[in-house]
Task: structure prediction
Amino acid sequence: MTDIQTNDVDEDDIIDTPEQAASVSNAMSSKVEIIGGPPVGASTLEARDACAWFGERLVLEGVNLTMPKGKVTALIGPSGCGKSTFLRLLNRMHELIPGAALDGEIRLDGEDIYATGTRAQQIRMRIGMVFQKPNPFPAMSIQENVLAGLKLARLKCDDKDLLVEQSLIRAGLWKEVRDRLDSPGGALSGGQQQRLCIARSLAVHPNVLLMDEPCSALDPTSTRRVEETIDELRDVVTVVIVTHNMQQAQRVSDFCAFFLAEENQPGFVVEHGATDYIFSTPKDSRTLDYVQGRFG
Amino acid sequence: MAGTALDENPVTEPPSQPPVRVERTRRVITEDPSTADKNFNRITMASGISVLLLLVLVGVFLMIQSGEALSETGILRFLTRTEWRTDVQPARIGVLGLLTGTVLVALVAVVIAVPFSVFCALAITEYSTAKRRKWLVGVVDLLAAVPSLLFGLWGFLYLSDKIVPISRWLSQNLGFIPLFKTESDASLTGSIFIAGIVVALMVLPIITSVVREVFSQTPPGEKEAALALGGTRWGMIRAVVFPFGKGGIIGGSMLGLGRALGETIAVALLLPQVPQKIGESIHILQNGGATVSGFIANRAGADSFTTSGLLAAGLVLFVITLGTNMIASVVVSKSRSGAGVDI
Result:
């Protein structure tokens, strides 16, 4: 649970004029209302005995995990242990794969997201997702990209310009793109694209943000930016992040869950708890071996 | 790693750039392919060239054969005259009346076929399980295998009567649009509209297959992004698949247009093959109209001057379809989605 040292590093080479700095803090103090959007605030997400299948193959078994409101939970573990599958289970992206099935419950503020009569679209609107590979809509401008979620989920908002500004500030991209909101989203660098994707997810004001190895395709500088963003999102939104980078998990997360799969066996959670604890004195020796880089 | 100090680095090679520039000569790289490779190369090259040669030969043949009619009529007059009369002296022939019909039939066909093809392609790529996808692709391909004569006969003997009520409805309700107006006593069979519908059936498979191919190349990451934002499948298609596949839809439509322009048998059966007269208003819903290919099929085997005139009309069609297809392939290959798609 280490704090990122944001004070002694330059946010950018771009230095704000006093007016610009004032406008940024102004923008963040106003509140944009999204009509028909998710309820305000972060949510608690719980998995109860969650299992997942691809066709006949059971890939994840009996996961019990609580991802507390307004905290950052990191999912760690070697490749192929079901972390990403678990993440996709959390916002009903799992069911897009033909033959995918599940058992158990995923509860968003106590309510099962797979309950009959619950639409996947409603759930995905409340639980946003950032993918491993940045995937902005290349034909849309930066502004349109940020607002794409509103359009897709058919939501209305009273001040779109302010929403774009707020979302981009939250994602740490505003300073770099404020003068070219109309240029295409595909023209940005990889790191900027990923932050644009984060801004796009944040624009619908989700209760939870899932991140599937968001920095694995990024250079160190961009990685640092994304980590700063995650740090600032704390309290605003619940974050669940899959990462292969132990230092990253240690830097950004409050809680940590260690996933593991024996050969040809479904993945499961070996251990979970506060990040400090998982990284210092875990009960299971496999956890210690993994976090200290002895395998995986 | 930690044990190796920098000064122990065992560099033995000379520095890669000498301090003084020396005069360099390029080494010639020789390749000596095996006999099998050489022969195979020859065969493939010969096949490739012969296709090109065929195209040129057809063009040259058409130009030579149409010479008689074109020199007597004058190229410009031939292109701008709508009449086709060989019973007067001198004969008054022109391609414009035929061309109008050709373009109208093709446009009706494409306007009807494109939405169908796009939705069909979506059904295949976005709304089907793997099994149903295979099945649907097979059915569409099968449609392409039906001889166009059968489509023509079916249209002539069966479909035509069924469409008459639609034509009547259109003319009664949309008659204020000049194109949909009909004369009060006109027959509604054998119209450009009906011919267009039948031709639409014939171009549907080709458009569908190009559009399907393009849609299936949509980056999965962008599709997931749209769905993860709370979009419905249809919303995702509008936000991601359509913008990505735009080039493919345009290109596929133009390719279909190219096919529709040259379609012969259905229009020869369905249309009375009376060239459209300029000045007279165009009625696509009522009996009448002619197309280049249908007209040629109907009149083939006449005297040498008429044949020459028909070939001149064929030459015009040849140039137009070639142009349409070339534009179509450029559009598809230039678009983001079409980079890996062959049409």
Summary: Chain A has a mean pLDDT of 88.
